[in-house]
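Bench notes, bay 3.
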Amino acid sequence: MGKFSKFLTVATLAAAVSVAGMATGVAIAQDYPDKPVTIVVPFPPGGSTDLLARQIADKISGPLGQPVVVENRGGAGGTVGANYVAQSTPDGYTLLMGVTGSNAISGILRDDLPYDAATDFAPVSIVVSSPLVLAVNADSDLETVEDVVAFAEANPGAFTHGSPGVGTSMHMTGEMFALESGTSLLHIPYQGSAAALQDLLGGNLVAMFGDILVLSEHFESGALRPIAVTSLERHFMLPDVPTIAESGLDGFEAVSWQGVFAPTGTPQEILDRLYAEISTAMEAEEMQAFFEDRGFLVEGRSPSDSQAFVVDQIEMWSGVVDAAGIVVE
């Protein structure tokens, strides 16, 4: 047999395998779902990601005709659960409630991550997002972004800001702020948001880029002062608080987000079915109220839009990591 004939044989076999795989994928999609679906939350129960996943699971189980259960697999900033889903069979039965850290930032910071956030997941939908808010203790003299920048310039390295840990959206937003404002901020990592918040309330930190939901009660009590939000537009929960972008750092935007992901290779028909059911669930008044009460902004991006969004996020945070010289030990 000549080389050309051999090539034809191999090519024909490859084509046959490809067609067979496509046929199998179509068959799986047509029967989907015929058993329970699991949404993996890569954090312990009780957090915002867990609550969001349970709301979605409850609303889509009826239309799908199968139970949709939530399984908590916490650890390593969300990467344990994310890796579990990345290694799962791509058949639509094991999904991930992914977040900014697990599906964008962690892959940039960690060389030892066992999955590739950009290529090992097929997004179903980026469901919600939320800006952070730059907050200071109410006893602070800082009242505007201009005050913050001036203080940081006059006291290089003395402007401390706390976060739940290296690589979190709170930490990275602080790094972006420092780069955009040309200042030097001292990052203090904590084991969770609660510890950082306590030090901010106690006057041991200058500032914090925190979740609106977590900080809102302290704004209402007068213990903390909101300086600015990190979205391009003002937030409905803090309508009188300006954005960082309108306060002198034009174009500044950093948001945390959450979305549903499947392993790469999941048939497009299944992704589209899940997206359709999630979108319908998101339109319900009770879901809208759930989001609004917690300060979430509804995104509801399609699979293709979600993929483009994640790629853009990875590129943006990669630029911040490189420019700031962030290294995880």
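Next record in the batch:
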Amino acid sequence: MTPIKTNIVLIGMPGSGKSTTGVILAKGLGKEYIDTDILIQHEQQRTLQEIIDTDGHMALRDIEENVLLRVTCKNHVIATGGSAAYSHPAMTHLKKEGVTVFLHADLNALKSRIHNYETRGLAKRPDQSFQDLFDERSELYDKYADITVKSSLLTQDQVSDEVIQAIGSDQL
């Protein structure tokens, strides 16, 4: 018998709805909520963009990996940063206790939601376009996803409902 994973781990691009959907899911399912971007900012005492501006995007990825590897919990909804999927050790760690859900928003939806691409604190190469980042990360999200929910045309409440339906009540 496979042990039941009690966490829901949300992965996806910035703007895909991880943070908002995470709060809605946690409230609706009676689970605790963790936003790993907030954990990083709290630990570092600076914003994600300040980390990138000072130390570079690879430093942010390293910090993120270290923070994710220390997340140990049950019965939580965990909204990860968009770059979490770059870390195989971190994703493997999160998947031990969690069902990984890729909130897949298409490029046009993301562009309409993200207006601060250059100052949002994204762990990306300085010369990397949003299209290139999307293409690069989409492969990683697909690799780690247990479930994919297409979120482009849905409200956050609808995305939450889709996640719950896809996971199934026996798993929650």
